[in-house]
Design a protein that fits this description.
- It is built from twelve helices and ten strands.
- It has about 350 residues and is α+β, with helices and mostly antiparallel strands.
- The chain folds into two domains: about 90 residues; about 240 residues, Bira Bifunctional Protein, Domain 2 (BirA Bifunctional Protein, domain 2).
- A hairpin with a 2-residue loop joins strand 7 and strand 8.
- The N and C termini lie far apart (about 75 Å).
- The mean pLDDT is about 85.
């Protein structure tokens, strides 16, 4: 037993004399590792007479516990000393300019920024974000949305079609994010409250249209939702997005296959030079489309239109960005011009929040 206590004293002395963490680790391995001196004593317990095993095992376990405690305390002391030395010797000159790099030079595209702003607004109203594939089948992009076979939107001059498959069907690049609404209703039970932002594709190109653009649609399905809820959601969204106290909206009757009744929404605005001011003035600008979900759409996903109802709306994110941040030509969004991005882009640290300001 005296050999055990002598070994304990030697190891404890080595621990106290350790000058850094690397030296301390070597001591731990030499004592408590698989081939360590204390581990070797434990392996020898089985060779002892039965009446000596218990007492010897307790002695060895006591030594191991004492060493574990000493090692932990020494490790903490060495780590604290190393940190104190770093704090005493390392300095940072906060008067130096920011170094060139991604944080200072990188820019978030206005479209990405607006998507974040929109998601922040609707999240505050209890909406979740839903996503779906860019390549869709005919059912989700057209049929389930009550779009008839002879509708102009199905024609090739308006829609990007893929080659025919073996069964004769053709996939399409989605023409709106409405298929995300269909996929959500197929997999979820009401109540549903989602927005679906994403890329969409149509055969169109001019100053305010591009073959690929961005859209966000919203969907609410439950048993009691009505037009008053739709109006409130749109009003709160537009006030928050354009960061104005009031907006005046005008609802005009229209026709969309997937909603009934269907409406387009105009908002008041005025021009001051090249600036567009939302919420004031005597001019009207069409901003989005909306309506109550058509009963045929509810039937297509297995819902009972006698029990459930809801509303949907859709708005172009690119157009919202142009209005809010004064960008005159939609085609510049996709020109990959670094000068344009540095002018209109956002710092990676400009995270939109309702409390701090969306356009900060």
């Amino acid at each position: 037993m005296s050999d055990i206590h002598e070994l304990e004293k030697q190891i404890l002395s080595s621990i106290n004399e350790a000058g850094d963490l690397a030296a301390l680790e070597k001591i731990r391995v030499s004592a408590l590792g698989k081939k360590g001196s204390v581990s070797a004593l434990m392996k020898g317990v089985g060779k002892l007479p039965p009446d000596e095993r218990k007492s010897f095992g307790q002695q060895v376990n006591g030594v191991r516990q004492a060493l574990d405690k000493a090692l932990a305390e020494k490790k903490t002391a060495l780590a604290d000393a190393a940190l104190a030395e770093r704090l005493a010797t390392e300095t940072a000159d906060i008067s130096l300019p920011v170094r060139m790099g991604p944080l200072s030079e990188g820019r978030v595209h206005p479209i990405s920024q607006c998507m974040e702003e929109i998601s922040e607004i609707f999240a505050d109203m209890g909406f979740s974000v839903a996503e779906g594939p860019d390549i869709e089948d005919d059912f989700h992009n057209f049929t389930a949305l009550n779009i008839p076979a002879d509708h102009p939107a199905r024609q090739e001059q308006d829609t990007f079609y893929f080659p025919k498959r073996a069964d004769g069907s053709r996939l399409v690049l989605r023409t709106h994010t409405s298929p995300v609404q269909i996929r959500t209703m197929e997999t979820q039970k009401p109540p549903i409250r989602i927005i679906a932002p994403g890329r969409v594709y149509r055969c169109d190109s001019d100053q305010t249209h591009t073959p690929m653009f961005h859209q966000v649609e919203g969907l609410v399905i439950d048993e009691e939702t009505h037009m008053g809820h739709l109006k409130w959601v749109l009003e709160e969204f537009l006030k928050a997005f354009f960061e104005v106290d009031e907006v005046q909206m005008r609802f005009r009757a229209n026709h969309f296959p997937f909603t009934e009744p269907s409406m387009e929404v105009d908002i008041r605005y005025e021009r001051s030079g090249r600036e567009v001011r939302i919420g004031t003035g005597d001019q009207w600008m069409e901003i989005l489309g909306c309506g109550m979900v058509h009963p045929n759409v509810l039937k297509a996903v297995g819902y009972d239109p006698d029990q459930l109802q809801g509303f949907a709306f859709g708005v172009g994110i690119d157009r919202l960005a142009m209005l809010k941040y004064g960008m005159p030509d939609l085609r510049d969004f996709f020109s990959a011009d670094l000068r344009w991005l540095k002018h209109y882009g956002f710092s990676v640290l400009d995270v939109p929040t309702l409390a701090g300001g969306l356009g900060a």
